[in-house]
Structure formats: structure tokens, C-alpha cells
Automatic annotation (TrEMBL), chain A:
<comment type="function">
    <text>The pyruvate dehydrogenase complex catalyzes the overall conversion of pyruvate to acetyl-CoA and CO(2).</text>
</comment>
<protein>
    <recommendedName>
        <fullName>Pyruvate dehydrogenase E1 component subunit alpha</fullName>
        <ecNumber>1.2.4.1</ecNumber>
    </recommendedName>
</protein>
<keyword id="KW-0786">Thiamine pyrophosphate</keyword>
<feature type="domain" description="Dehydrogenase E1 component">
    <location>
        <begin position="69"/>
        <end position="360"/>
    </location>
</feature>
<keyword id="KW-0809">Transit peptide</keyword>
<dbReference type="GO" id="GO:0006086">
    <property type="term" value="P:pyruvate decarboxylation to acetyl-CoA"/>
</dbReference>
<feature type="compositionally biased region" description="Pro residues">
    <location>
        <begin position="495"/>
        <end position="509"/>
    </location>
</feature>
<feature type="compositionally biased region" description="Basic and acidic residues">
    <location>
        <begin position="406"/>
        <end position="477"/>
    </location>
</feature>
<dbReference type="Pfam" id="PF00676">
    <property type="entry name" value="E1_dh"/>
</dbReference>
TrEMBL record, chain B:
<dbReference type="InterPro" id="IPR027110">
    <property type="entry name" value="PDHB_mito-type"/>
</dbReference>
<keyword id="KW-0630">Potassium</keyword>
<dbReference type="InterPro" id="IPR009014">
    <property type="entry name" value="Transketo_C/PFOR_II"/>
</dbReference>
<comment type="function">
    <text>The pyruvate dehydrogenase complex catalyzes the overall conversion of pyruvate to acetyl-CoA and CO2.</text>
</comment>
<keyword id="KW-0560">Oxidoreductase</keyword>
<dbReference type="InterPro" id="IPR029061">
    <property type="entry name" value="THDP-binding"/>
</dbReference>
<dbReference type="GO" id="GO:0004739">
    <property type="term" value="F:pyruvate dehydrogenase (acetyl-transferring) activity"/>
</dbReference>
<keyword id="KW-0786">Thiamine pyrophosphate</keyword>
<dbReference type="GO" id="GO:0046872">
    <property type="term" value="F:metal ion binding"/>
</dbReference>
Length: 509, 365
């Protein structure tokens, strides 16, 4: 395990180097707008000529913003953990407690255009990428206000430029590399941050992704969040080489003390510049999770309580950053205390909102399976009695817009095809384009939009039971004679081409 | 890996087929050209479309489906990948999530099993899991099913495998019209599409109508096509089994039996309306497929019929002709017997028709 690294502090005004543990009464210095400090023992470089900046600037604004975010994430995860214990959250629930500095520090220097994809431990990232705590907690509780409308759960939350959690260990790595490929394809000067754990670091597809990312020089930041345990197995027992920042072999790497938010921020800034100019880079963020792998893991059989306690005391990302803020005279004890109380209350209030929300409507079971459903009905438990409902407009992807003049109507050659279909396709294409240009997040709003899909139900509420029941009835009864008569026509060959006569002769053997 | 062997097999298959249709007067198009021109059209139409896969660029495609496209569109639009299916399938899915429209070629579908997690878990399920926030407009394509002499690991039909999964659209074209129209439709589709081609017909020239060459020619996904109308029995097939069925229908015609042959085109969604309508007319059904029988496409069709009123229209049980329930053997004769042959389909048809055969023959006279 990494030792806690002492920091040399340097206040801009005095120019005096101060050790981190120096007790400086804040009164003397007052509140600075901005301070400087020198990071030490926070980086190790692999195949890099220069590393990140060690002398970093920290403004009061940034300090408080990052501190607040870390507090929020920790509190949110505590609330989630409690709700799980009360059996209100089901199934999987992987908490980020202890790793806050990684997500908060990284997000601090990512730009609006940059993309992120992570693994199943995704609550913190989802929040930082812009989903409200209310929506996240609602998703965990499986209620209708959830950011994936209760259909994704703990591991499947998405928002603009955030391509999710992913429930399959390592699968997000090639997918994220593909997002980076899209950035490179569009030449939009953005990067994709791809996060995975020390467990996933041994997955074959991670190395496949490294290879192609380097080969094609993709703007991709691979981040191994090393919390030292892949599920319940210590890194030393799972990896033949535990220097994960060197595991890219031909990709330069950087080891970062992932429990120091300023080190993370500095490393990310460096990686961002590197990825944009020179291609992929691997960051290993050494961190620690206080909780078990998931809620079913007490996290004590494969490590000692003492070990966890020691990290909490010596390397906690929140406590250490708090001391830094005070030592740098960016805020004082009292002020932080107030902030902490306020944040806790706010988080609780936000999360509580979700508990009052209603369950997901039953009809949402059969919504949004296809962006363009061409099947008739969806099969229910017993028979094809469910209507495919479309609530969402497509999509978050922001492709370079194809000029409208080049998008051609999709002619439907088959005579039988409903006339509306061609128009529908056209309308949708146009709409999707518009939608992409706009914000992708306001799902609620989207849901209410008339999607022009014949299968779509304009008012989601109108699509509830009665309709489904009616359909079921239809299905049971013998198809009406008129319908039956129409069907053969519907199946007629397209445009009555010259009837296909002889099939091609079979291979001469 | 038997990739080089596969390519050899492909070129020998091409030799065997290339002259077969030249005599016909109608406009001809090989399946290879149909696919190639479909890709060309869509690359030109939409700058978000790109192709990636093994040897698709400089080598012109292992089966020459992407011939000339790299020269025309360059490195950005036609990308050679390493031989790492899981990685590049995942990358293609990521690019699709981020708004591009990748066409991901598997040299053959057999290798897609290394990437099946990304096809199912990353591509098929994301639209639903994200409550419609992230769609995945991607086409996975490549040759599917038994080729010639490439043995068990390289001879397998994946139609039933992928058709099992909600969120995917699964297409299995037979002739040039299917291949061109459906591939274009698949690329324009906002959902993940599994496009199962057949290597053995790549070099076959089929007669096509004039409009098939149009830039905007598309065949709608989810609609079957009646290849040959008939009134006595329905034969439902997809991909190369359509050829077997058509040949069987020609045989049966000699006996005075008029078989209706349905080319499914789409496996998911399955155009049951067309099948049901046909069965209501013929009252008999045989399904023909080259995949394995258990939980196969034919099995699904049987189940669908039983769950519908059409069941009562049947005068005899539905019968399945499918690949023999064994891994594909290598030896030529064994291989030939591992798939339904024309005679098998004829026999099954006669069995299903039973006593009616005599009547039909009598009526024909």
C-alpha cells in the first residue's frame, strides 16, 4: 500500500514552504483567493519525458467546489448504503466511498465536450456528469423519476457524454475506446476518459483496446482506479505485475496518488493535453474503497479492519483535502464545518425526494426496446399482447451533422408498406439530428414529445393497462375476417417483379 | 485459425457459381456486388458511416465485399483492425453510441462469439437500459452458416442465436436484391442489426429488377418475400435454404404439387403475417433451414403457429428440415449430408401432404 505522502505547501503571499501538518491559525493569514503548493510523491512516470505539474495553484472557489463534491458523493453513497440495508435498493449496489478524489479531481479539469465511461461503480461519475442526486437515487430505488426510468438500476445510468456504467467487467474499455474513435473521427478536439478497476486490468479486451488506441492514436485516457482489490482478491493475488500504469507497455503511463484530489487534478490536466496531442495514456489512480465490493460483501474476510481503519485515518481523500484547504488559508475550520452540515442536509433532502416518488408504470416494461420498432407487438408472458411504446427520442451521440440536402428520403419499395412509413423515417431522421444538436438530457421533456412513431403513445399515461388488455383480447379472438383477407396482400412480393423463375443452379461438385 | 483456408474456399465457391446465371437475359447482379454497392452508396450518402473489420481496407475484404472502398474513401472511412474481435466489436459499439454509424465486419460470424458480449450486452440492451437515451446504430455483418470444407468451428448458423435477443434486428438475405436492399436499410436503421450473409452465394449472379440499382433502393426490414407462389404447401426458409426450397418446389411441380416458397429475409422481427397468410391458403407447412434444429428458426415458427388461430388451418403437423444435429464434419460427403438437401425437402413435403399427394397428382392430370 502506498504511504501517505507529505506535502510541501507554499503560500503565494509569503513564499514560505510549509509542511502540511504545520498548524497555522487561519486568522493570521485570513482567506486567500488563491494559493500555490508543491505536490510531492504523488506521481510516477512510465515512458514519459515530463510529468504533470508539481507546483499547483488552487483557488478558493475550486477548493470549495471540489470539497463540496467529495462530501456530496460520500454522503450520497452513505444514503444509498442505508437504503440498501433497509432493503429499498435491490440487487447490485457498488459504492464509491473512499475513492471520491478520483472522480472529483478528474471531472474538475474535463471540459463539456469530453466523454466519460466507467464500470459498475458509477454513482459518483453519474452525479458529476450532470445527473441530479434525486434522479440517481430514484434509479436505485427503481421509481419513475430514475435517470433510466427504473430500467437500468445501479450500473446503468447515462447522460450527455457519459456512456454509462457497465455491468460487465472490462467491457466498457473497448466501448470507451470507440467513443474516443468517434471524437477522433469528428476531429472535435475532445477526449474520452475510460475508467476500469485493478480487477478489469487483467481482461483481454483491455489490452485489445490499448493496442488499437495506440495504433490509431486515439484521444483516450485509460484510468485504472486501483483500489487494490478486484472484488475480494488482492491485486497481488490476481496480477502478475501490479504496476498498472506500466501495463500499457507501448502506452506511456502515470501513477497517481488517487486519494489526493489535487494530484488527480494535475495528472488529469496533463493526461488531457497528452491525449489530445499524442494519443492514449494510462493513468493508475491508487485509491481505496472502505466498503465491500458490493453490498453483499462485508469487505472484511480478505483484509483486516485495521487496514481499512489505517487508510481512513492516514489517507482519507476528504480529510486530507480539508487539512490542505485550511493550511492554505483558503477557508477556515468554521466555514468548512458549516459547509459540511449544509451539504449533508442538502444531499439528504435531494435523496429523500426519491423515496416519495411513484413506482414506474407497468407499461414501461415494454417501452424503448428499439429506436425504430418494425415488429408488431412485443411478446408478453403469454402471447403477443404488448404494444411497443416509444418514450425517448434518439440520442446523445453528437455526430457531425450530415447536410440535410444529402439525407434522402427512404423510399419504401414494397407496395404494401404503409405509406406513412417513408415519411416517418424521414421525419425521424430530421428529428434525431435536431435532437442531437440540442441537449440530450431532458428525458422527461422528450417523453412528452410526440415522437411520430405510429407505435408511440403520445401520452405515456394513456398507454396503461386498458390498452394492453384490449390488445390481449384482440389477440385471443380469431383475427377479424377483413384483416385476414388483407394479409395475403401484405405479403405479396415487392412490385411484382418478374417472378423468380429458376433458382441458381447448385454448385457443381 | 483457418482464415486463409476460408478465403480459398470462398474463391473456389465463386468459381463454381460465377457462370451459372449468365444465360439469363434479365439484368444480373452478384450478391458480392450487391453488398459492395450497398456499402458504397451508404458511405457516400452519410459521412457518419464507416467500415471496420479485419482486412476490409487494403486487402479489399477477405471475401472482397469491401473491394475498392478503401481506395475510394480512405483510411478514415474504411479501417483495418487487428484480429481481435472482442476489442474491435466493442470499439464499433462505442463509436455507434457516440453517434457514428459503423458497419462492423466479422470475417465470418463464427468469430463473433469472441465478441458476443458486445453484440448482446453492449449493443442490444443499451437502448432499453438507458430508457432510450443511448441508441446504437450499428450493423454487424459477415458470412454466416456452413461454407465448404471448413469443418465444425467454421460452419455454423447464428440466426437462432442472435434472433433470441430483444433489442437486435436479425437479417438473413438470400439473393442480390435482398442483400443490397436490406444492407442499405440496416445501415440506415437506428438500432443494432445483425446481418447474416452466406459465403456460398457471394459469387452467384441473380436476376434483378432495374430499380434495385437505384441509390435509394431499400428493402424494409421485417418483411418476408414470397419467392414462388403455390397453393398446396408452404416452404419457409432463409438464406441458402431458400435455394434448396426453390429447387425442391421445382421438383414438386413435376409431381403436380404447387409449393409456395417464402424467403424470410428477416429472422427478427419474424414476418409471421406472411407465413400465416400462406398457411391459411395451403394448410401445410415445412420449414427449411441450415442451422441446427433445437430452438431454431423452424422451432420458433412452429410455436408461433400454434399460438395463433392459424394452427386450426393446418391439415397436417408442421415439419422441420434443418441441419443435422451434429457439429459440421469435414469430409465432403459427410458435410453434404449434414445439411438439408433438395430431396430431403421433397420427402418431407410428401410426408406432410400424405394422402393429398395422390389427389394433387390426379388433379394435375
Amino acid at each position: 500500500m502506498m504511504k501517505s505522502s507529505p506535502l510541501r505547501l507554499l503560500t503565494r503571499c509569503s513564499g514560505v514552504h510549509l509542511p502540511l501538518d504545520a498548524k497555522i491559525p487561519s486568522r493570521i493569514f485570513g482567506r486567500h483567493k488563491c494559493s500555490c503548493l508543491t505536490l510531492e510523491n504523488t506521481f510516477k512516470c512510465y515512458d514519459l519525458e515530463t510529468g504533470p505539474t508539481m507546483d499547483v495553484e488552487l483557488s478558493r472557489e475550486d477548493a470549495l467546489a471540489m470539497y463540496t463534491k467529495m462530501l456530496e458523493v460520500r454522503r450520497m453513497e452513505t444514503v444509498a448504503g442505508n437504503l440498501y440495508k433497509q432493503r429499498q435498493i435491490r440487487g447490485f449496489c457498488h459504492l464509491y466511498t473512499g475513492q471520491e478524489a478520483v472522480a472529483v479531481g478528474m471531472k474538475q479539469c474535463l471540459r463539456q465536450c469530453d466523454s466519460v465511461i466507467t464500470a459498475y461503480r458509477c454513482h459518483a461519475w453519474t452525479y458529476l456528469m450532470g445527473v441530479s442526486m434525486h434522479e440517481i437515487m430514484a434509479e436505485l430505488l427503481g421509481v419513475r423519476t430514475g435517470c433510466s426510468r427504473g430500467k437500468g438500476g445501479s450500473m446503468h445510468m447515462y447522460t450527455e457524454n457519459f456512456y454509462g456504467g457497465n455491468g460487465i467487467v472490462g467491457a466498457q474499455v473497448p466501448v470507451g475506446t470507440g467513443v474516443a474513435l468517434a471524437h477522433s473521427y469528428r476531429n472535435d478536439n475532445a477526449v474520452c476518459v475510460v475508467l476500469y478497476g485493478d480487477g478489469a486490468a487483467n481482461q483481454g479486451q483491455v489490452f485489445e483496446s490499448f493496442n488499437m488506441a495506440k495504433l490509431w492514436c486515439l484521444p483516450c485516457i485509460f484510468v485504472c482506479e486501483n483500489n487494490h482489490y478486484g472484488m475480494g482478491t488482492h491485486e497481488k493475488r490476481a496480477s502478475a505485475m501490479t504496476e498498472f500504469y506500466m501495463r500499457g507497455q507501448y502506452i506511456p503511463g502515470l501513477w497517481v496518488d488517487g486519494n489526493q484530489v489535487l494530484a488527480v487534478r494535475s495528472a488529469t490536466q496533463f493526461a488531457l493535453d497528452y491525449a489530445l496531442n499524442q494519443g492514449p495514456i494510462v493513468l493508475e489512480m491508487s485509491t481505496y474503497r472502505y466498503v465491500g465490493h458490493s453490498m453483499s460483501d462485508p469487505g472484511t474476510s480478505y483484509r483486516s479492519r485495521k487496514e481499512v481503519q489505517a487508510v481512513r485515518e492516514q489517507r482519507d481523500p476528504i480529510i486530507s483535502f480539508r487539512s490542505q484547504i485550511i493550511a492554505l488559508c483558503l477557508a477556515d475550520e468554521e466555514e468548512l464545518k458549516i459547509l459540511e452540515d449544509k451539504t449533508k442536509k442538502q444531499v439528504d433532502k435531494e435523496c429523500n425526494k426519491a423515496s416519495a416518488d411513484k413506482e414506474v408504470d407497468l407499461h414501461e416494461l415494454h417501452t424503448d426496446i428499439y429506436a425504430k420498432n418494425v415488429d408488431g407487438k412485443i411478446r408478453g408472458v403469454s402471447g403477443f399482447n404488448l404494444e411497443h411504446i416509444k418514450l425517448a427520442e434518439v440520442c446523445f451521440g453528437k455526430p457531425k451533422k450530415t447536410p440535410a440536402s444529402e439525407i434522402k428520403e427512404e423510399p419504401v419499395v414494397e407496395k404494401d408498406a404503409k405509406k406513412g412509413k417513408a415519411e416517418e423515417g424521414k421525419a425521424k431522421e430530421g428529428k434525431a439530428e435536431e435532437g442531437k444538436a440540442k441537449e440530450g438530457k431532458a428525458k422527461e421533456g422528450k417523453a412528452k414529445k410526440d415522437s411520430k412513431d405510429p407505435n408511440a403513445v403520445k401520452d405515456p399515461k394513456a398507454a396503461k393497462e386498458p390498452k394492453a388488455v384490449k390488445d390481449a383480447g384482440d389477440n385471443k379472438g380469431k383475427p377479424p375476417a377483413s384483416k385476414a383477407a388483407k394479409q395475403p396482400k401484405a405479403a405479396a412480393p415487392p412490385a411484382q417483379k418478374p417472378p423468380t423463375k429458376a433458382p441458381p443452379s447448385p454448385p457443381k461438385k | 485459425m483457418l482464415r486463409s483456408r476460408l478465403i480459398q474456399a470462398a474463391s473456389s465457391a465463386q468459381r463454381a457459381f460465377s457462370t451459372s446465371q449468365k444465360a439469363l437475359a434479365a439484368k444480373q447482379m452478384t450478391v458480392r456486388d450487391a453488398l459492395n454497392s450497398a456499402l458504397d452508396d451508404e458511405l457516400a450518402r452519410d459521412d457518419r458511416v464507416f467500415i471496420l473489420g479485419e482486412e476490409v481496407a487494403q486487402y479489399d475484404g477477405a471475401y472482397k465485399i469491401s473491394r475498392g472502398l478503401w481506395k475510394k474513401y480512405g483510411d478514415k472511412r474504411v479501417i483495418d483492425t487487428p484480429i481481435t474481435e472482442m476489442g474491435f466489436a466493442g470499439i464499433a459499439v462505442g463509436a455507434a453510441m457516440a453517434g457514428l454509424r459503423p458497419v462492423c465486419e466479422f470475417m465470418t460470424w463464427n468469430f463473433s462469439m469472441q465478441a458476443i458480449d458486445h453484440i448482446i450486452n453492449s449493443a442490444a440492451k443499451t437502448f432499453y437500459m438507458s430508457a432510450g437515451a443511448v441508441n446504437v446504430p450499428i450493423v454487424f455483418r459477415g458470412p454466416n452458416g456452413a461454407a465448404s470444407g471448413v469443418a465444425a468451428q467454421h460452419s455454423q448458423c447464428f440466426a437462432a442465436w442472435y434472433a433470441h435477443c430483444p433489442g437486435l434486428k436479425v437479417i438473413s438475405p438470400y439473393d442480390s436484391e435482398d442483400a443490397r436492399g436490406l444492407l442499405k436499410a440496416a445501415i440506415r436503421d437506428p438500432d443494432p442489426v445483425v446481418f447474416l450473409e452466406n459465403e456460398l452465394v457471394y459469387g452467384t449472379a441473380f436476376p434483378v429488377a432495374d430499380n434495385v440499382a437505384d441509390k435509394d433502393f431499400v428493402v424494409p426490414i421485417g418483411k418476408a418475400k414470397i419467392m414462388r407462389p403455390g397453393k398446396d404447401i408452404t416452404l419457409v426458409a432463409h438464406s441458402k435454404a431458400v435455394e434448396t426450397s426453390l429447387l425442391a418446389a421445382a421438383e414438386l411441380a413435376k409431381k403436380g404439387i404447387e409449393a409456395e416458397v417464402i424467403n424470410l429475409r428477416s429472422i427478427r422481427p419474424l414476418d409471421t403475417a406472411t407465413i400465416f397468410a400462406s398457411v391459411r391458403k395451403t394448410h401445410h407447412l415445412v420449414t427449411v433451414e441450415n442451422g441446427w434444429p433445437q430452438h431454431g428458426v423452424g422451432a420458433e415458427i412452429c410455436a408461433r403457429i400454434m399460438e395463433d388461430q392459424t394452427f386450426f388451418e393446418l391439415d397436417a403437423p408442421v415439419w422441420r428440415c434443418a441441419g443435422v444435429d451434429v457439429p459440421m464434419p469435414y469430409a465432403k460427403t459427410l458435410e453434404a449430408h449434414a445439411l438439408p438437401r433438395v430431396q430431403d425437402v421433397v420427402d418431407a413435403t410428401l410426408k406432410v401432404l400424405g394422402g393429398k399427394v395422390g389427389k394433387a397428382v390426379a388433379a394435375a392430370k
